[in-house]
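User: hey, got a sec? need non-specific serine/threonine protein kinase folded
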Amino acid sequence: MGRCCKEEDPHADAVELAVYGLIQPAGKKQQQLPNADELLCCGALLGATHLQVHPSARVRGLALAALRQLAANKTLLLTARKLLGQILDSRHLCLQDLDDFIDSPVQAAPLPSQNAAVRKSTEEVRWQLVREGLDFSTWVRTLSVELLALGSAVWDGPALGVLAACVPLAQHVAWFAERLLVLALLKAASLPRSGGNLAKALTEFFKREDSDSAQAQCLLRALHLMRMHHTGQRQRAVPHFPEDSKDAFWSSLDLCAAAACASRVGRPRDGLLYLELHLARMHPDLAPDQALLPGGPTSELRQLGVEGLFRAPGPEVRLLHDLARQLPEDELLYGVTQWCHASSRLARAELGQDHLATLHLRCELLEAALHARGGTLGSEREESQEAARLGLDDALARLGLYPLLVGGDAPAESAQSSSAAWERRMEGLWRLSQWDQIPVPGERQQGFHAGIHAALSGLSNAAAEVAAAERPLPSLVANVAKGLQGQQSELLRQGAVQLQMLGSIFSLTDALSEDARRQQNMSAGNSGSVAALAERWRVLPERKELGSAQHFLQIEPLYALRATLLAIAAPPHQELRFLTALAGLAREASHPHRALGLIERAASQAVRRSAISVVSAGSTKDLLRLRWEQARCLWDLGQPQEALSIAKLLADTLRSCTPGATSATSAVVASGVDDRSFAAQVVSGTGLWLSISRLESTDVILNNYLEPACLIDPSGAQPRRQLADYLDSRLSEERARQGSLEHARTQEARRQTEANLAAVMQEMATLRLNTHANPLQLQKQLQSLAEQKRKLELQNKDDSDASARDKEFVKGLALNCVKQLARCLVEGSQENLTQVACRFLSLWFEYSQEYPEVTTTVREVTPKLKLGALMPFIYQLASRLDGGSTSGASQGSAAAFQQTLDELLVKLASRGTDALWPLVQLRNGDQVHESMRHSQSFVADTAKTKAAARVLEQLRKKPEVRSVLATVEVLNRFYLAIAFHPIQKEKRGSIEVPFTSVAHYREVREALRVAPVPVPTAPPGVEGGPPQACIHAFEGVFRIAPQGISCPKDIKVRDSTGREHRQLVKGQDDLRQDAVMQQLFRLLNDVFEDNPKSRQTNLRLRTYQAVPLSPCAGIVEWVQNTDTIGDLLVGHNEKHYTDGAHTKYRPKDWNHNDCRKHMNDVKGSSRALQENALAHVYEKIKPVMHLLFLERFPSPADWHSARQNYARSVAASSMVGYVVGLGDRHTNNILFDKLTGEIVHIDFGYTFEAGTALSIPERVPFRLTRDMVAGLGCLGTCGLFRRCCETAMEVLRSSAPLVLGVTDVFVHDPLYSWALNGNKAKQQSDPQQSAQSHRTSPAADGNEMAKRALMTVKGKLLGESGSAALGVPAHVGQVIHEAMDISNLCRMFGGWSQWI
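Assistant: Yep! Here you go:
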């Protein structure tokens, strides 16, 4: 419905929202779904009620008359009152009026007789939606009158009565007429006798390329309302073919024409939705991603050969190009390799910001248009040439090459010449400050940029008055505002930017007028207003706020205009500062070429206007900032030598600002550069570039750049982080060098030297004992051996010194790196410290045994650390606990490490209960229930249980923690009692167990009364945020979950705010793996937010809370508003599976049991037979996930948002799941969020490639079956999904230390299944053997299976594939292919449901 009319009224939105509120999407709870008559009546009643307060007495009278006439149909009135009462406030004016009509009937005017209405046969009814030359207001009023004129040939009694009552009112109020039209079209579409003709009329309208935008949007909104209403009524996606082939309306509507029209009028989400509906209609038996392949099905594509890739795109592909340009965030064409035509390559280049390729392709298209021959008509050829020229102009503008745009002759005046070319030329002229008289032929002076040029020309003329510059502006404002009516968000952004541009001109003229007034009054600071305005404009949005590179291009004209305004009226230094800031924004938005052009402009303006004729503090600072920005642009453009030449000179200049500098220039520079953070940024950044380029030694980089940067700005987080990162990288490189084959050979040579020296000394001793040898000969031999000994001793000394230097170098790097990371954590800046905390702990864990000084450093900073950054790593810290004594004779590095670890854990646990649960769980490490499988073979790590008990005992001594710890321990025992409460599995669906029958229930109630604690499955508290809500009470009974082998208990907990928390208490299940995986997901979300690329694509992983209680029990947060994809697609009925989407949309396909039986029949057969069997299953069952999105999210905006969320979540979870080896991804272990469209993975029992060890090994890296792909849309795994996969993999690779650091917990606290070790059991039975093994065996460092698992994770993060290391795109492409490969899927276990 929306806003299209010029005389929009605030009440119009209320009517629109109410109508949409009455249509609930399928799957949501609703009391009553109204039919078309009831909706029409509700909309009419609401609109007429609102118009009773209209300023016009005539309108008020017509509104009252309409209400009285509508009240004549008592049945419809009562139904409408009931419906509106469900969505409106009880005090709403409409409800009060309706109650008055119901309680005190008014004498209503009689309804017009249907005989009086114009009668026509069904064949004579023709919808005249196309009206030439009418504005929107006239068009919509005219159509409302003709609706009534159609009479009983279309309308039945109720609809005719509503129209007769409301059309007189609609003739006076356009917004009411529009909403009446939309609802009337909904009614007409549902009538068999009018639906087909209406669809044909809509198709005719949609096919017109010159249709009015407001009219088109009105009809598209009507079409959208029809879809929503029909979807709700039929409880499925509408239209869906072939089911809707008999529907008069949907069978006659051209969906592709509707999609094209939506694209033309700026509704790309509608366009994409209707395009996919069109493809589903044309290819009902093809998966969505197969419908757009060149030539259709794959067999036909093979017949076409390579030339099929270069065919001119069809209408659907061309439409997709347009939609991709309007939806840049969707990355629709990314990764699409099937279309190689120039137009497709151009669209991909433009969307990928490949400006050089865009320029080349635009030139190719212009050349092709110029050489067009044959049957092309002259006018068509000229139009093609004009479009190609405009495209080339647009490519030049994207690169900022405006001098090329304005350098030639003005566009010629011709019938085919578009005003767009002239507008682009005028834009280039005002950007370049060219104010000469420009001949403007025809009506081109009416364009927006022509008006801007005229206004700025007036400002640039010193003799002209300010009012002359404002003269063109009011008409421009009116034109822009008129163009904004009824537009979608994409076009609204452009209009909003244009309004801001005009506002900027007004702001400058106001400032100039104010300064002129002050000058006349001889006031001080006569240029203060302009200067203040310039300072405000210099504050540009941050990169996070800006969004994508495409968003920068949308808002860039505003900043370009402000730059030109400052060049006209502001002091030179103000223009210089603004251009520098704008260049930085352009560079950060991935437009370094444009940024470099701005810098060159700023530098030339400064020189030309003599801005630096006198060296001053301000000009020095401004020029230094300008040149640093220039260096950054050159670096981004791949010109490191030029960038470093500038940066090194800047760093040399700025280093004189450090404390103790006494050079002659120090005073000048220090006064000119008072921003120490900027100086530190330059010096540190230069050091970073030198380290990347490897153009200086480590000592030079550290001593001349990175360390001085920290001295310049001691409180700066970025220089210190860069120093820590550099030290860390050098440490990794040095350890890699010392572990290399070359270093091993060097070490072997050193050992050989020692052996040779020992042999020589032994030989000399032997000779001295030989009393029978010739003295002279003996003397010569001893002299020769002495010389060898001397040389070997020198060599051995050099080798020893080199080894000592290597060790000291590593020690110095490790110690310095830990210190710098600790400083980052101590200062606690606002940046994301997740990776800093992870690396700090990893280095401590790795080097504490070898270098005790590292532990000393950690212990010194522990009291100062901001613990919030360390809290997410509580599992990693707790896993390092060991049972050895930390006092008495044991004073070694291990004892110091344990003592420091104890102190840190006590500090963390004192902050809240988040750290207490892992400690209690670790203390319970030997509590394995007898019902647990292989419980007799489980060997607990008693050292860890004792260590955890030791820390808990220390906490118990702290008064502020004692009572809270007691409550947590009682809750732990209570939850364990629930987990292993005996139940009868065959009655799991009907069992309700009262909590009073569970052990420790009374203790829990008493403990919660004394010391309330937060709900363990609630989201973790935020540091500095509100306190967490505590447990108030448990619901009276718990139930048994319908699914799950271990029969999880479904319980409900109410917190102190009244909110209900649903939990699953699981026994016979090791949830430590789930907890650590959720911890990894949350930490990766922090990294995704911190990384610019992943933040731009809104990557995130859905998480939930998992709290392990012991090695075989735990609590899991219930994920609200979700269903498993198995329940959604297949259904709940395990015998027949009749309630899933597959049965609903494709009832003739095989059901789930048929597919499984067919695959079971070939289980154990050859791969070829299994592959053929699955291919046959694919023929018998088709994907329907895309239809599920259409059903649950019928609104184009909701559908588009849900599809984006789905693609992002599938991509992120697939890449992370692949890296950690997540298996068992059957349809009941993946949830679908019914509100957002995201997927949520649950049950992490099979990670680290455990699925490959099953009796039927898993062979795919993640779940990407046909239904999963269908949910991604018509481009399948290309587009947004592929982009998000690559971005996620890039972030995972760059965050490898974080991933390995988090999963390293399993080495030191092995999983239950990994602890089932017969050798460990044998050692446990022999204390001496156990102690000896603990000292000497590699198993003392953890479980060997965990180590191998981590090596596999590390290999994936390195992109290892066989003997090669793949780049990110190739790596992602390979795993996607493996996940979809039918030869892999056919050998999966049948319960995995690879056909779904």
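Quick note: The mean pLDDT is 83. Let me know if you need anything else on non-specific serine/threonine protein kinase.
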